[in-house]
Sequence to fold (251 residues):
Amino acid sequence: MESIVKVESLLKKFGNKVVLNSVSFDIKQGEFFSILGPSGCGKTTLLRCLIGIERPESGSIAKNGVDITNANPKDRGMGIVFQNYALFPNMTVYQNIAYALKARKLDKETIDRKVRQIIDDVGLSDHINKKPRQLSGGQQQRVAIARTLVLRPDLVLFDEPMSALDSDIRMQLRALIKQVQQKRGISMVYITHDQEEAFSLSDRIMVMNNGNILQIGTPKEIYNHPATDFVKSFVVNNLNEKVRLIKESIQ
Fold:
């Protein structure tokens, strides 16, 4: 499988603090790739470097073989879904999703077709004329996802998009994201500190701590063969504990 993104020796500092310690990895075409680690491990900074909000001190980011390390965010062909939705409060669901298409000066018929299709894909057809304040948190996040996907980026980045949502809503959104990803064949990069979330969604997981990559592998590889004591403690032991608590609660 070809790589859509290749990161080599990426170094990022804030002052004297090394936040990304010469990290290297690749993301495959059509892959669901999660970056898993505790708060402060560097995963969100890495995402911000990928999208172009932060610039690294050294190293490179290539997309489809083209160096984009210093490219403008708008020229990278990537979409991003933030934790806080960032919707326009005075616009309806339809208008929020159509906004970027209008900025690209597409004709009205094309905009309408694309918007209605993605609204149907994310299950919001009954809410098309509502404004954000009339929606639940989960519904607002669906709008944010639809607004990103309607532009048809070939890579979508998620910055802990479900951390503010209830567990049942998170389960629904996980299923939705995976369904849309498989239907459209989009490469997705998912930032999370939640082991269960990473394992349920990912083709491969990259485990980080203190600005370093500790292991990259499939969920099965990481669970069966943790590369370090930290990976075993943070990933495997935490997953086992969650399973134990679930078993206890239903006995």
Notes: The chain is about 40% helix and 25% strand. Residues 229-250 form the longest helix (22 residues).
